[in-house]
Amino acid sequence: MSNNINSQNNIPDNWDIVIEPTRGIFDLKLKKVWSYRDLLLLFVRRDFVAFYKQTILGPIWFFIQPIFTMLVYMFVFANLAGISTDGIPAPIFYLVGITAWTYYSESLVKTANVFRDNINVFGKVFFPRIIMPISIVISNLVKFGIQFILLILVIIYYVLFKQFQLDLNFKILLLPFFILLMSLQALGMGMLISAMTTKYRDLSLLLTFAIQLLLYGTAVVFPLDSLKGKMHTIVALNPMSYIIEGMRYSIFSKGEISLLSVLYSITITIIFLILGTIVFNKVEKNFVDTV
Amino acid sequence: MTKIAIKVENLSKAYNLGQIGTGTLSQDIQRWWIKMRGKEDPLFKIGHINDRTVKGKDGDLVWSLKDINFEIEQGQAMGIIGKNGAGKSTLLKILSQITSPTTGKIKINGRIASLLEVGTGFHPELTGRENIFLNGAILGMRKSEIKRKFDEIVAFAGVEKYVDTPVKRYSSGMYVRLAFAVAAHLESDVLIVDEVLAVGDAEFQKKCIGKMNEVSKTEGKAILFVSHNMESIKQLCESAIYLENGALKEVGSVNDVINNYYSQFVSQNKNSTFRRDNSCTKDCYLEEAIITQNNIHTTFIDNKSPIELRFKIKNNIKLNICFEIILRDSNMNPIAFISEGSVYGIQHLIEVGKYSGNIILSLPFLAEGNYYMDFIIAEKNIRYVDNVECFMSFQINSPIINETSWVFKQSRAQGSILMDSINVSINKI
What's the ipTM? Predict the structure, then answer.
């Protein structure tokens, strides 16, 4: 094969597109992806607009899910179980966890199923496939942003009317960093799994179920430092735990966070992102034949 | 010298049946676990027993395309013809970069736009305007480019009044028109079109062919066009490729290729019996059929009494079907059509299994010569479940008009159908 390519390279012809059976694993065609940036934005817009079309409440639906989840958590975990919320008012504490976790789990599950969910489009038109997972992560980020406004409103309410002392300082600058880390991790992990869900449907079934349980293995409904010993180690190893802790830390200056834990999250995210991208690129070429 | 737009070199595509059929997680884990313990791969053993691997020479590999070579110049329109399963769609899929070839190369000059399906990525909740932008971007247009062409697209589709209506309220015709319009206005150097026009009405099909002709001739686009409609191919293309079982059988001028394509039916279906000899995976399909007239199985039909088609079909899912017949003259031009569903609104709900049946057809008064028939099983207004082109042929012999002893023969001048009657009155003025 390689001989063949060499001999043809001697002839000076420059083709715009050459379709070949294989291409290098690091050949990500980023230039091509960039030329499709308008499509990325349109996909994000589509997801957003299509979400609330023909609903009465419209975008308000973005608020309903976190509010009700928050109320249930307050009842179950704060009132019944009496789990500590680290001195932060329970609604605010839960709302941070809920918005972050919803974002993470939805992005992850949708990215992991991206090939099967979009087979109709992927099977008929070519565009850099990676646009799709990126658009999923970004449109969920828009949703996350809207839900974050809700969080801000609730915090303002607590500061004004419930004498909640919010110690806002330079740490808030860390917040965008944790959010970015969260979306990249969801993207990387999702793409890594997506490669396998094309072949094994078992995995996508497992994932929907596992992600629900994983909520309790992440520091969403409890602060990380409320755990001791082995349990603490296990939950801390969950790459999402420090991200959620970090978000709480940057807003409320409370939570267990260290340089080491941040480095751990960054490393895991980068590994997932690189592996995910490589695997995704390999699978996208021929998955149409197996799905 | 004109520039080459597409160059296809030794292109082959294999499908691995095994990988699609098996490959559940538990099986692969089991396999891995057994390998880890150093035992023999269980699937390997199963593979030995498996009939498919024993029968197939290349194990589980099926070559959907094998060693295809051809070139298309800029401004050239090339038709691709071949029976179902000949590899047409696989070829277009590889050209459109939806799946990659197993071996071989394709080199393309310029931007490529493919239309394998109309309205890919259309979202029913979004308006026509939003969908034009979305669909255009999916096809590879920049936003500014779509903006520039927006009015032209809307005008071509004829949906000016409805641009701000969600496309789910569109009629299917409007939907198809809009989708084609977007693709046709793509600034590309190569346009690939698959069978998509079949969904539109005749007038729109004509408009589309016209548009494609225009972009090919005036803008110098190369066009690859797959259709089962030979008339459309003849109108648009000057050359054609004939694929058979994944191999390139012929490349040449459109008329030669189409004639050769048809000649195989003529040699195959010399008699009035049809039997499907390969296995078929369609939801419902014709297995066998014969033509009878006056309860006699025959190839020679006269114009005096109706004919009867006796057939067997096999059905794999529960379906609501109706039957259609197309009659073709000896040049394979369609000359008459009847549809149970469209004309009488009749449909048959059939369960899974085999069915036998008969169709009694009153043919028009036909001229002497050979005729072919297409047998179509359709879901009314949805799709053709099975479409057997020229599934059988018959002959009309010496149709003598009693009064004059004149013999009506098929000819280019007079066609092949005699009109019912003629009454002339003439008065001196």
Answer: 0.80
